[in-house]
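REQUEST FORM: STRUCTURE PREDICTION
Request ID: SP-0412
Submitted by: Lab K.M.
Chain count: 1
Length (residues): 306
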Amino acid sequence: MSRNNTFLTLLGAGAGIALAVTVARRRRIRRALDEYAGKVVLITGASAGIGEALALEFARRGAHLVLAARRQSQLERIASTCEQINPGIETLVVPTDVSDEAQLERLVQAAHDRFGRIDVLVNNAGIIQGAEVTGLSREMIERTFAVNLYAPIRLTQLVLPGMLECGSGQIINIGSVAGLASLPYFLVYDVTKAGLRAWTEGLRHELHGTGVETILVAPGFVETDVVADMHRVYRAIGFFRLLSPQTVARRTLEGAAAGDPVVRVGWMETVAGYITTLFPRLTDLYWRIVLPISGYREMAIKHRTE
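STATUS: Completed
RESULT:
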């Protein structure tokens, strides 16, 4: 057999194996997605964006929902939509400021009072505070940490004992590619997402063998309030297509169903994160080129979400 024929044979065999693995994975995911039916899912930041998309996606799968955010009217609208999508589910709306310890405790208690358990915790609530490092106030730093990092940690502590007692559960933390590749002028946000990544990874090792899974979702730039008026700038620095919340939600459920410890969404952002780790000088050059011409700094220091 010639070398060309050998190469083609190996290439064909490799493609066949890859296809078989992909098909088997898709079948496993479809079966696992059906298992969300009847599960109780608590979602923070559920009033818009990724949180809203996740609520709708879990509703389609038959999960009962505990929806938490500060805007009650938005939560009630989403709860109504979820029940229309799947009349067989129940929803509970709990207006919550996740930066308030007492409200976190009330949220978990309300879920237990209604459903008796929490099977899936989705830590999705997040804010971003753009500023130059010298312009960051203590209040901005503390609130970003409280919402983006402290709340997921405390909610995990509040929910985890029940999951351990049942011997099953999932904790899904919505992170960001910024946890791997920092964005200038959003440093506190970057740090909280890096911390959430470390928390999720360490917790995964700690919970091995308990039946409780942790999943980190690391999307790139998504069409939500968090990026809002930064859309034009992100396109100017090379990210021409922003992800939809629906795409992130769908990939989150598929990854969680497959048992993936990390779900990365957005190939350009993911590649950029690895380049930052492996070739930091290249990343330095990139920012030196794009910052002066993109208007990024001027928009970033004014960009705030609450």
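NOTES: The chain has eleven helices and seven strands.
Reviewed by: T.R.
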